[in-house]
Amino acid sequence: MSGSSQGRPLRIVSWFLAISYGIGAPVTAIAEVRTGALSERLGLPPELIYFTCAVQLVSAPAVLTRAWAPWAALALTVITVGAIGAHLATESPVRAIPAVFYTGLQIWFYIVSRGARANSAAV
């Protein structure tokens, strides 16, 4: 498959990731500041929750740029793999399902966006 045949799905996924992380990260950070429930439930330091929220906020607009999209997807994938591990270690595996979905989507996005970037550089 060429990069151009993946253009529209790539744009749709990039906007989905940008919006969902752009909204989700601040909501998570605010909830953590107010209640501390996430760090308490997962047994993680609150600073780690704040750090991952910051990475998500930086990565959200970066997925919309051709140059940074693969790296932003990679950073988000590292976070969601960590989320999967944290959920599996502390709670029901069902709670990890959204993170598994995001991880798969971000891996696809990383592969396709790298290919699109390489194809545009070769032209």
Description:
The structure is a single chain. This protein is mainly alpha-helical. It has one domain (4-122). Helix content is 81%, strand content 0%. The chain is built from five helices and no strands. Helix 1 packs across helix 5 and helix 4 runs antiparallel to helix 5 (97-122). The chain is elongated, with a radius of gyration of 16 Å. The mean pLDDT is 89.
Q: What's the number of extended β-strand segments?
A: 0
Identify the overall geometry.
elongated
Helical fraction equals over 70%
The biggest sheet, with number of strands, parallel, antiparallel or mixed sense and barrel status, is: none
Instruction: Return the average pLDDT rounded to an integer.
Output: 89
Distance between the termini: 16 Å
Radius of gyration: 16 Å
Care to give the gist of this entry?
The protein is an all-alpha fold and 123 residues long. It is built from five helices and no strands. It has one domain (4-122).
Task: Quickly list its features.
123 residues, mainly alpha
Task: Chart the SSEs and their pairings.
Blueprint: H1 7-35, H2 37-42, H3 46-62, H4 69-90, H5 97-122
Helix pairs in contact: 1-3, 1-5, 3-4, 4-5
